[in-house]
Amino acid sequence: xxxxxxxxxxxxxxxxxxxxxxxxxxxxxxxxxxxxxxxxxxxxxxxxxxxxxxxxxxxxxxxxxxxxxxxxxxxxxxxxxxxxxxxxxxxxxxxxxxxxxxxxxxxxxxxxxxxxxxxxxxxxxxxxxxxxxxxxxxxxxxxxxxxxxxxxxxxxxxxxxxxxxxxxxxxxxxxxxxxxxxxxxxxxxxxxxxxxxxxxxxxxxxxxxxxxxxxxxxxxxxxxxxxxxxxxxxxxxxxxxxxxxxxxxxxxxxxxxxxxxxxxxxxxxxxxxxxxxxxxxxxxxxxxxxxxxxxxxxxxxxxxxxxxxxxxxxxxxxxxxx
Amino acid sequence: xxxxxxxxxxxxxxxxxxxxxxxxxxxxxxxxxxxxxxxxxxxxxxxxxxxxxxxxxxxxxxxxxxxxxxxxxxxxxxxxxxxxxxxxxxxxxxxxxxxxxxxxxxxxxxxxxxxxxxxxxxxxxxxxxxxxxxxxxxxxxxxxxxxxxxxxxxxxxxxxxxxxxxxxxxxxxxxxxxxxxxxxxxxxxxxxxxxxxxxxxxxxxxxxxxxxxxxxxxxxxxxxxxxxxxxxxxxxxxxxxxxxxxxxxxxxxxxxxxxxxxxxxxxxxxxxxxxxxxxxxxxxxxxxxxxxxxxxxxxxxxxxxxxxxxxxxxxxxxxx
Amino acid sequence: xxxxxxxxxxxxxxxxxxxxxxxxxxxxxxxxxxxxxxxxxxxxxxxxxxxxxxxxxxxxxxxxxxxxxxxxxxxxxxxxxxxxxxxxxxxxxxxxxxxxxxxxxxxxxxxxxxxxxxxxxxxxxxxxxxxxxxxxxxxxxxxxxxxxxxxxxxxxxxxxxxxxxxxxxxxxxxxxxxxxxxxxxxxxxxxxxxxxxxxxxxxxxxxxxxxxxxxxxxxxxxxxxxxxxxxxxxxxxxxxxxxxxxxxxxxxxxxxxxxxxxxxxxxxxxxxxxxxxxxxxxxxxxxxxxxxxxxxxxxxxxxxxxxxxxxxxxxxxxxxxxxxx
Lengths: 322, 320, 325
Hints:
The structure holds 3 protein chains of 3 kinds.
Chain A: H1 2-28, H2 35-40, H3 46-55, H4 62-75, H5 89-124, H6 130-143, H7 146-158, H8 181-215, H9 218-225, H10 230-261, H11 263-268, H12 274-284, H13 287-315, H14 317-321
Helix pairs in contact in A: 1-13, 5-6, 5-8, 5-10, 5-12, 5-13, 6-8, 7-8, 8-10, 9-10, 10-12, 10-13, 12-13
Chain B: E1 25-29, H1 36-43, E2 59-60, E3 63-64, H2 70-76, E4 81-84, H3 98-109, H4 114-127, H5 133-136, H6 146-157, E5 164-168, H7 176-193, E6 196-201, H8 204-210, E7 213-218, E8 221-227, H9 228-233, H10 238-246, E9 299-300, H11 306-319
Parallel strand pairs in B: 1-6, 1-7, 4-5, 5-6
Antiparallel strand pairs in B: 2-3, 7-8, 8-9
Chain C: E1 4-18, E2 25-39, E3 43-47, H1 54-61, E4 69-74, E5 77-78, H2 84-91, E6 94-97, H3 111-121, H4 127-140, H5 157-169, E7 175-179, H6 187-204, E8 207-212, H7 215-221, E9 224-229, E10 232-238, H8 239-244, H9 249-257, H10 299-303, E11 309-310, E12 316-317
Parallel strand pairs in C: 3-8, 3-9, 6-7, 7-8
Antiparallel strand pairs in C: 1-2, 1-4, 4-5, 9-10, 10-12, 11-12
Helix pairs in contact in C: 3-4, 3-5, 4-5, 5-6
């Protein structure tokens, strides 16, 4: 088991390394992209550009430039933006990360609770009225784009109804949890629900399908023959086995969202998270920030992948020895 | 115990009446779609859903059990009536240890503590001759071989000392040598505990080795019922003749196997009259009416009269 | 010997597998040093329990799997080591019939297409010639020619196996390797397919290598029988003496526990239920592979591996202490 975890982590590090090289090559070594010219500004003379190039080490061979970049990014942590000279990349990300983390973690709790409950209720009542109702709500939640749903939520809670039933909803923005946990939650409740809607829909549908399959398995027939109650069969046997694919799905979604995939929700609700940071740096072609944000995002996706694989080994004894 | 069932709009089982005595082994034999498993599942309430309906009467230890609420049937299942299934590969939940699954059943029906149930699981594994049971009890199903899994299933089935064990193709997925081990184990346990066994199988050879009485089923209906000797040596139904003749023998080589033309029919398209008539060599006018089960102890559903049956059977034996 | 159609000489097949827990890879010997010959027109049955390597052997013989060592000779010319192109003319002469008639037929093509495929691949002739041949094959295996345009799912298991047989016979092969051809079928249907195979053999002069786990079926079809255990042949010989008086303790045990119809004759054999499971092929016992389960094993069996030796009357046995009668 320990060997498996170590092997999995080593491969995760290798993937991270490859991503850093790939991103570096795309943004810093593609023909037509001259970082020196961007740093020097629009009307700089060739001499100044050359000077900048030397000062930033951009005239050295590619592998060295990659190493310098990584040194500045991870070890010295003093890589600074090319656009807003002086503002450093790492602090920007560490400021944005808690916002994204707060948003995604809260939403994840909500969608897991709603998704799993919905899936279990639908599967337990398959063939009855409630099953297609839950599944229809699920597909509706999946079909609605997050930014549209966000705008609608804003319109309702901040608009006409803001002075009546939604008076308790604060204006959009973010309050750190360290400052006021109550305000933190209050500010995030609408973004949480918006983000969770899509995933709750997906998870309920996937889990229902998994459960219905599981309920047709031979081991469920065995459990019935043992005289167990339907509830116990559903929860202890069918759900336990069906959760395995859900956990892997969750790990990947969670990793991707932390890594910046919650961009649209962040933009709509004005949350200064990593998604928003990536979005603006891409618009400005602010290469160091892009580099930093992409590396940060990749880190979480790769980490989530590794955690999922390791969790799998704990959940499914069959994987443990293979 | 006697029952007559009819399940669903499709009559998966139709007009089956049989009984199992204490300490007796009854074999139910038939090909795919013959309703041999469905009949047993339905009496235990293992077939559920709005599309399933069962008619008739099932008595267990003198009490009517058909149509009882699920709560009452649950108290019966796993305790007084236990089941083992064909594929031990998939019949155990993959994510729990074998011991956990045995203990789960024990705790469902008794007041034993977790620790006591675990100890009982170890004892049961030892009883079904699984070597090193105190280590094996903590292993997962995939760490067991096919034969050992079936032993574990048997251990689980026996955990609450059932008076009736229903074994659904318990050796079909196993090799010959493993099959012999499992059949021997079942016989041994039956002798020790005096429980009754209903053995569902497609294999006439297995039936012939272990059953006291035999029910031959075709298309959801009983074709012939009798003691093992009666059904195997003095079979009266043309379908039984076909089944017996189709089995290749170990002791002598026959030039050609007796075959039944056509394919086993699905309960979906049972013809009016005798279900076997379309494949039957001895079909005649009367077969357009459904034949009743006739006889006293040795029953069969065929319109041929006794003398003719005797003659036909002799002819077939002569030919092979 | 011109009447030998297939000669298998010391064929070994190893698979390399990742060993859980231990790290690295290790070799599993699925087939170990199997040698035999099949004469034209005969049926050789290979019988053994699951995991004994009988299916791997079949695949090695028809060159679907490369052998690790040893040679397979067909009609006097070696097949092992040939390129795909060099194999092609031999391929039409030997065909494989699979166990699962459900999985081995492409569900999206009509059965006429399926049977015609080998004809097209080997450029049998014009469209109408192929069509005529397909009709002929359908009649040969007892299928209704009106069902040519139907799809596999519209047929029953027995009919599907007939389609599989028709496909394998399309190119007039000399040798048919049948891997568990009837084990997925109901008894009554199984008997039909076995009878069909016997008829076809008579009519077309086919040679069969018939692989199955069912002892009764193997005896019924075979002239000679080979018994495999853990990748090796432990006994081989003409069917009747082998079944009536097995020499190897494994064969004896296997036959003694095979369920038989109780037809009034006294059982001739005492039941010998051997204990335990077949060992892991990756962890083969020393000496004779059967010794841990053998009722008559002695010290010698643990150390020295018995080789397959002649025991008279065309029989071969790999045992230090063969049964005598």
